Amino acid sequence: MQRKIFLLFASFLMLTACGLPLLSKKSGPQPHYIELSTPYGNSIIRLYDETPLHRDNMLRLVREGFYDSLLFHRVIEDFMIQGGDPESRNAAPDQRLGTGEAPGPRIPAEFRDSLFHKKGVLAAARDNNPEKASSNCQFYIVQGQVFTDEQLDQLEQTRLGGREIPEWQRQVYKTLGGTPHLDQSYTVFGEVVQGIGVIDKIAAVETDPFDRPRDDVRMSIRELTKREVRRLEYGINPR
Global pTM? Predict the structure, then answer.
């Protein structure tokens, strides 16, 4: 018996010394991930639990297949890629897009100080309604750009109306990049955790004068299964 205990303990030490994760059941609710598929590759996006209204709305639409074959209809390099307009599914090549909605009301804004427009975040598009409520289907993913301290200082005094960007967020904007002028005006509700290069590829496509890609960029979105989420959380390829 003592020999068995010793062997088990030795195996434990070998696993931890090699840096291998020890699989254990995590407490709390399982996080939600979706997979965005495009002609330029796939990205995996984690939906934030801090924004439950947007999270649950996105999951409902994904489960209904709402986004299948829709377009990224607005693409601006060094800024963002936007999609989710249901009118884009069968749109003519020269058709203006961006006003379509899913059935139902807007989604109330869910601004969180800890969630900001760093590169790779998923956020909700909206019109100019005074409540800053979100579109119930259109979203964008930030590509953005890297900023200097001087540029961030100027943004604080102009487009941010004097609101100071926290130092830890400044560091992200100065290294990873993003779109800080959108903070606290558009709801951020997820982020790309795998496949950020796909966003860069789409952002670089040729567009018309209205920022619509000249060659259609279609999408499909699915929810990761519980097994895929567990594998992803443990650093294993979800497939």
Answer: 0.88
